Amino acid sequence: MxxxxxxxxxxxxxxxxxxxxxxxxxxxxxxAGPYDYLVGADQRFMQGDIVDVPLGNRRATGAVWGRATGxxxxxxxxxxxxxxxxxxxxxxxxxLVDWVSRYTLYxxxxxLRMALSVPDxxxxxKPQAAYALAADLPEYRSTKARERVIAxxxxxxxxxxxxxxxxxxxxxxxxxxxxxxxxxxSIKIEPENDWPRPDPDRDGVTLxxxxxxxxxxxxxxxxQGFGVTLIDGVPGSGKTEVYFEAVAKAxxxxxxxxxxxxEIALGAQWLARFExxxxxxxxxxxxxxxxxxxxxxxxxxxxxxxxxxVGARSALFLPFQDLxxxxxxxxxxxxxxxxxxxxxxxxxxxVVRAQMEGVPAVLVSATPSLESVTNxxxxxxxxxxxPARHGGADLADVSVVDMRKDGxxxxxxxxxxxxxxxxETFEAGDQAMLFLNRxxxxxxxxCRTCGHRLQCPRCxxxxxxxxxxxxxxxxxxxxxxxxxxxxxxxxDTESLVPCGPGVERLAxxxxxxFPEARTVIAASDMVxxxxxxxxxxxxxxxxxxxxxxxxxxVAKGYHFPGLTLVGVVxxxxxxxxxxxxxxxxxxxxxxxxxxxxxxxxxxxxxxxxTYMPDHSVMKAxxxxxxxxxxxxxxxxxxxxxxxxxxxxxxxxVSGRDEAAVDHAAAGLARTAPRGEDVRVxxxxxxxxxxxxxxxxxxxxxxxxxxxxxxxxxxxxxxxxPIAKKVRVQVDVDPVSFF
Length: 738
Ligand code: ADP
Ligand code: ZN
Known about the structure:
The protein is of the alpha/beta class. β28 (563-568), α17 (582-594) and β29 form a beta-alpha-beta unit. The longest helix is centred in the last third of the chain and has 15 residues, at 626-640. It is globular and about 85 Å long. Bound molecules: adenosine-5'-diphosphate and zinc ion. The site of zinc ion has 8 residues, from loops.
């Protein structure tokens, strides 16, 4: 086999394996490590090559990981079948996989699986069948539709049949009929492979002096190796415009760029701004891509054809050949933490990838995580701040509504103050937003007669009524049922009552108070996919909507100039439960929500409805003193030895057999590592003690910052007696404690 890939490469830089040598091949499976194979005659591989190998009596696809250990007897080794026609995984990605595996304690193969998520992309795209007019047109029966096809093809290049049918406005059978009649001739064309090239040289907005200085600092770091910079600036201060300059710089240097955003589905405005700045859209990477798009994008990233990718957390494992910059926008956002499969934090691992690549990482937020702020204070990250809103508009004025004395009448959720502010806003022709982080109609349905609460049969959770679709739903496992006519416990009829509000119930109150207001509910179960999200954004921007009632999906990143009032219906919602990050998360969310108000030329107002007006979160929001909050929170964490001042590793023990789960959890507690300053708490029932029918217990290891608990935890789990039917999930640096 002639393989000219090796004539050019610097063989020192890449590990190369020739005939008769042994290679370690990592398979995207939860195995303990790579398996050894033999390189056959005529074969040569380099690290990262994607290869087919025999595995038992089937074929598996994996990646050449390095030299084999040589422990397996040569006679037992089997030969690699061959290499797939796709660029090898870049060295930095190979290193990242190993690093993430070591850090998170998930098997290398499980991590590799995230990097090899699109097996269809390992083969070059097949030439497509396309059709053109035959050189000599035979006699044929003429119809209007047929003539449209013929006329279309006179003026256009050959196309696949489906495209011709669409363009000519006829059915596929018309095209097929013409093929059968010999009027159209089949030819092969290369599939279209044009990726737009974002143009860094177009003019962006004219940056203010402060913005220009910040952009200058960022740009200077591009091309200068690894480093992390935090862009910290109030909402609307131009953080996006500023990091666009760094993106432009990386593009100018001929590098690829990765921009990570939470919940890409809502990036319609972001995309429009990117296009305005760079003249074309970036490639997107998120869960709603079609299989074909996913395949093309993965391959184009591997071939270096795609210059900029904007994506959700899984974009981190794309095979960039020549990355120059990673941006993590809304870096504090909880959705960067993946909670199932391999449990990892994409923001933290983005910094690791940047380090492996030797390129800068830029973290962006108006409410940076305590982790990032602390890294700045420790001198590990650089910081650039944008202290004011662009155009000088002030941040919104925040009022705290004390629901204990100024609350609404029974059965209502909007205080008189907030209702009046809404009236004034509509009167003035402005827009308002009510924020309530609760989907559905009511979070709880209760029997008035016996006190029974409707609960999910598979989870420790109440069923949430979704009145618009007439269902009760579990928000944890997706269980659904029709609302019962009578109480399942006491069988009383008409005794079930909804308790508490969800966004649907608020809409009902608005309908009563402001029947004229054009209202839309924005929640993840009402907005399906990027198209609907974009349409919603357009309607708000063009003022076809007076009031948005939304959950957290509208809290982030949007810029609606007409919005002057934000009402937070239940500011206390995130504070119950007692997780150590509760205050930080609530502050971040409410600050972001408040930041939606008054982004245009008129000032904004924010009302926080709370039963805890003296809580540090409410006080900091009312005073507009974010830094005071961060300082206080930082001190509290330090005293409690909680992250980022201490290390946490959580173990979640789960299974269908409760006794077996308890037994395993007790076993883990008994064998727990104990050392100076290393402590293990638990087992305790998880807040969701039952989830999808599995019983769950938690243990929590705490250690000082200097200690790397990974080795300890690996050893611990290895030692403990754990029955096969019980699963132990490791969560290093847990963010949520569900
Ligand atoms: P942030 O990311 O900090 O929330 P953005 O970058 O989204 O801020 O900027 C908010 C709005 O202000 C956007 O519409 C943006 O285009 C506009 N903007 C920011 N800086 C400038 C500038 N220097 N000139 C014109 N418009 C700007
Ligand atoms: Zn459930």
